[in-house]
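Obj: model holo form, ligand = flavin-adenine dinucleotide.
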Amino acid sequence: MRSVEEYKEGLRTMRSNIYFNGNLIDRLDEVQEPAIRVMGVTFDAVSDPEISHLATATSHLSGETINRFCHVHQSAEDLHRKQDMTRALCRRVGGCIQRCMGADAVNAVNAISYEADKANQGNTEYHANFRNWLDYFQKNDLVGCCAQTDMKGERLKRPAQQSDPDMYLRVVENRSDGIVVNGCKVHISEASIADEVLVVPTRALGKDEGEYAVSFAVPADQEGLIQVMTPHNARQREHYSRGMQGGYTDSYLIFDNVFVPWERVFLCGENDHGSLLALLFALFHRHSYSGCKPALGDVYTGLAALAADYNGIEKTSHVRQVLAEIIKVTELGYAAGYTASDLSGPRLQIPGMGQVPFGPGAYIPDSIYSNVGRCLTGEAVFHEQEMLCDIAGGFPATFPFEADLANPRIKAHLEKYLQRNPDVPVEEQIKFWLYFIDMTCTGAASVFNYGNYHGGGSPVMEQIAITSQYDIAERKNLVKALAGILNEEG
Ligand SMILES: Cc1cc2nc3c(=O)[nH]c(=O)nc-3n(C[C@H](O)[C@H](O)[C@H](O)COP(=O)(O)OP(=O)(O)OC[C@H]3O[C@@H](n4cnc5c(N)ncnc54)[C@H](O)[C@@H]3O)c2cc1C
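Output (holo structure tokens):
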């Protein structure tokens, strides 16, 4: 497994293909440092005695110990550990740990490449391609990101109906040595600090949409691939240091006639499997949210409780209500993920077909529990922010900037008036409110809310998954029986 320094050295040697604010930047540019620091935590974790049992796994390919973010889940216990690792690491960085998108895509492609080969009766070698690539990915302890979301153009039109056919990434040329793809994937988290990009389709695809049913992996600096990156960094601090100085990035990934050799292609043309791949990545990713959203809930609980303490309102009934509400969502989200792991297996819930054996034996979390958990926590995002705003009052919105707080000419005045709870040193109160602002009242905090709401699919997508997969007919029959409409035989 790599050290943080080795990971950074890998980034240093990559081709510059990232645009930010009008410039072509290197991967180790200072604007990327906060995000790299967060990613670094996933490398440090494997040798940390407190967490290494969660952060490492045994590769089913090589039998070697690998970083869990490169692993294909082989058991329900693996999924439990993935969830607990995610919660623990997200608590350390106070937000997204960034490396799960690649891991979730790895697990989805593993199953789909196998099933597509099976359906093609040995005429394709997608799974062998994938296993070879995965072996390289695991042995080199690489960071993957997942490029699923397409630009999508006119929302109510299918890929094949778009006036510009590139609105969904597609194969534009089939060659003897590989394929050429065109299109643009959007909002791709951490692509600018990843080694590899895993591409999967966004949505269900019709029979005439085989060109969009494509999955592959390319290095994040592949020839023809252009990244346009947006960073979301916490405000710079000089005087009041943080426990963690983190940040995030998202990229538009423009594939301008990118060549992908066949050995890196994991699906090409099978529209049914393309549709299932879209569903399966979303499923694995929604399960990952049962680790990260509870961690965020832990942070929000601490923020609300301390804001109440510092405001001297900790004994009021509305504070109790807020704390109970945040804790409820946090632990129900965790419980749903835990249950989804417990009910996992080498099978998949397919709308209209029920639970069917699926993939080469790796474990897939239960879909209903993954979706209800993600939906619950996703819908709560802005309400949680509203509750934090309620407890804080207007303080965070107009809090002085750090340089004013440290300016000797006004520092004493500010400290006098910022003192709310006489039992807490004012320096501590200032640090707390500056962090509260980081999490609720900055540009980066707003972006974070959007990610927490839409990432893995907007709540409406989970509602569709829940209602199309839940056995509602069985519940109708239950009520009919209870109401005396049906007898016991139905
Ligand atoms: C910070 C952040 C990070 C992200 N990271 C990643 C990542 O790493 N990888 C990745 O692949 N994706 C990522 N995403 C993308 C995320 O999965 C999408 O934002 C989400 O699926 C919603 O898609 P969209 O943004 O295109 O919204 P849109 O589809 O544009 O939704 C806008 C509105 O239109 C509605 N709508 C859209 N289509 C239809 C339709 N056919 N019929 C009726 N109504 C419709 C929606 O319900 C919604 O109300 C990220 C998003 C964010 C915000």
